[in-house]
């Protein structure tokens, strides 16, 4: 049967795995659910027993073979119920029908049914009445015992219907009546006619008692009992008449009758798990080791992993550190061909082409001279304002130019600060020999001893890799070839921690010496930082060139209108005692209104040029106030071990941006500053710059 095969596989699995709340959790569901493997096995056997019960009930029992098959099925079912009750009694599912009470009743009932089959077999075989009475008496007694057990059980835990108890009672009475009748026949054979009358009367009394409960009995059973009642009445009448007329034997009292000896032939068939090997065949997990050994091996693997995993991680970390150090040394070796990088060389050529630091210093000096000349002219004009008429006529125009030069002076200070910040960097970029020496300092030449250090480090890294592979190989052998675990197995890993620690100490000592000699990645990083510094200096240099050109252009443009204003004031001053010359007749042609009419003096101040020719509407020297502060990008901090070649105030932020657009003019983007060419300028610092 498939149920037995399934049960057998469950039994074999239990040897390999452990199920339950604290182990492997598998939910088994029947009328109730549980994680217990015992519950699953009990339910499986219970259903197998029920199947045997149905087979026995469906046998016709009309011949000896049919009776034997039915009896065998009932005995197997009874034996299974008894085995489940003793071995797999479910305590985890109290609401299940598979409980102690039900299993006990079913064991007794189907044992009684098997005993009943022996009665039927005896009747077919025409067994002697005395022996048949003994078998029938035991059958009736077994049914009565079942009835008493059902009656005493808890109805809430019972799975039996209302007819179950009365039918047990009726069957018990039926076979007790049969036993009395067979015993009466046996007494008649022995000439005990008085005993015959008494036993028949006892049988009739039992029948009447059974019919009292006939309301819930099976109809066939009730019919049999009524038939017994009718037969017994006739037999009692005939037996009394024969005894009174013919035999005249005393009729004994019921209490003095000898009890019928019981013979129990039905014994539940023992359920043997050992017999399942032929039924289930090869167990599903027969190749797995037993659970106890598996549990021990699991503990061993857990302990092994707690040792092996940290050792592997320690090896990996140190191998990474050593490999990076060796790689950095190799990169340094590749940089032995020293030359100035192409981008730095292009910047140097551009600065040299524009005259370098000397040209910038000359331009800054020119700006100071032009500013001083403009300031001196304005100072001389201010002395004329002692005359109230002159002051009233020219005060607004003088104030306009004073404000322009004052703003330009503030811009000059910002330009000076920018120049001072990058002065030393420009000096470095102006000298090829200085640049070459600086880049040579980033490429120390390794000695023979340095090469030996790297060789020793490579050997230690390879040794550590071999130790790691050895550990992994031992662990892999454990996984592929599990055997009986013994305590000394874990000790084979004891040698590795000391080997790893010794290797790491030796590596760290070599790596420290390599870093002290500057053979690692430090020089490469230092070179990158220096190139970044030069890039920033060149960006600021291009800005400075544009600012210088704009400053020179501003002072060159403003000198002429201020000079004209000075001449007009002088002319007006000379004409005060005599007839005054009108302003329009004395003004130069380029000071007349663009329309040719009206005064060149407006409420907003003195106009140097016609409106369509107004210069410098933007930039550091524009008439309008400055709109936004100068936002300089943060500079990296170059902290060299040697003396710092860069000015300490290089990262100083200007107070504000003197140029509204805050960008390099188009004429200076991507090319050297050419300087502004103007006429009548006292000096152009870029006119003689090398091309």
The biggest sheet, with number of strands, parallel, antiparallel or mixed sense and barrel status, is:
2 strands, antiparallel
So what's the overall shape? elongated
Stretches with pLDDT under 50, minimum 5 residues: 578-691
* Strands, total number: 4
Q: Please state how the strands of the largest beta sheet are arranged side by side.
A: 1-2
Assign the CATH architecture of the largest domain. Up-down Bundle
> What's the SSE pattern?
HEEHHHHHHHHHHHHHHHHHEE
Quaternary structure type? single chain
The CATH homologous superfamily name of the largest domain equals alix/aip1 like domains
From the alpha carbons, calculate the radius of gyration and give it in angstroms. 62 Å
- Tally of contiguous helical segments: 18
- SS strand fraction: under 5%
Alpha carbon gap, first and last residue: 109 Å
CATH class of the largest domain: Mainly Alpha
The structural domain count equals: 4
Q: If you consult CATH, what is the topology of the largest domain?
A: Butyryl-CoA Dehydrogenase, subunit A, domain 3
Supply the helix-strand structural class: mainly alpha
What's the overall average pLDDT, rounded? 76
| Percent helix | 55-70%
